[in-house]
What does this fold into?
Amino acid sequence: MAAASASMLCIVIVICSLLSTPSTANHEVDALIDVKKMILEDPSNALQTWNPSSPNPCKWKYVFCDAHGHVYTVHLALKNLSGALSPRIGDLQNLYQLDLTQNSLFGILPSTLGNLKNLVVLHLGHNQFSKGIPQSLGQLSRLKFLSLEFNKLSGRVPTVGKLSEFGYKSFQGNPELCGDVVKKECPRRSLIP
It folds into this structure.
């Protein structure tokens, strides 16, 4: 009787673990696949293993997971990637580090980056991102390192929340940025239409 109860308990534990893990993994897989879809060129095949039929992103190249199997780091620096950054990047709730340095990524920085509450390291420098810096980055209370330098960003550098702690080096090389942190006065808005 005790052996049957122990066997039944083992079966229940296995079923529960199978049912609980894929929802998180599938959510992360969906987000990463959307990130891949926005990449137009991948000459080094860095994203070749990013495949929805492989449901464990922890086994994909340049994706690293924590002890619980959550995506912890995405490290795609120097991969010659060209394309935009998907807003779904903000769905990787356990992300600690995102490194996309020195690619040819363009378009806007998604405001959903502000959803990455566990993010400590954000490397987006040496790309071609344009438009403004989303104020939502100020919500990243754990952020310790921010690299947005040498892009095509423009407008006033927000000084809200955590963004107020970063200096010139985080933003240098974006000639269209203005504000105290980059030591460039912002143009006054004309009162005449």
About this structure: The chain has a mean pLDDT of 88. The first strand starts at residue 39 and ends at 41.
